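I would love for you to help me understand the pair of lines that follows before we discuss the fold together.
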Amino acid sequence: MLVGITASKNVTELKKGSIRNIKTELLSDNWYTLNKISFEYEKEDGTWETQVREAYDRGNGAAILLYDQSKGTVVLTRQFRMPTYVNGNNDGMMIEVCAGLLDGDHPEDCIKKEAEEETGYKVENVQKVYESYMSPGSVTEILYFFVAEYEDTMKVSEGGGAEDESENIEVLEVGFQEALNMIKTGDIKDAKTIMLLQYAQINKLLD
């Protein structure tokens, strides 16, 4: 049972006009764009405070959990992620759901294409379940989350990712309960993957 949360009187919505004098300075556009943003923010007592933030804009993305209810399995991927390697992940390998940047596509079109490129499964009936800012303190990205059923007859290639993007993706078909246990053991540490696996568990997609 979900319990509603009532905001306290100290929590107020941001009023229109509560931010002014926004100035943006480009720090880097080597891959995507990193901006330094300064602005004045109106506090609750009516005074104005100058604040400075950095925001990394890499565009929005989409992610999908493919699941087979009859077999009790999900399709995941494994690939090297340099940012995790430099922050304590010894081999840099991450187990994740299929995902990719929109690059101007509609989220549903994007995730169908990514699913085929990365996993080799051609899925048509995808269901959007929610969307989320993944790191709102520093990254502008909104991630659109999908689920879809798959079966062996939908396999049209070996997957592995787009050749021109040097993705080198390994495709994994894993038992759903095993995947949930991999969260507990730390074998799965990717946020979007944990979110979709827990969505499937809460909504009993594989029961």
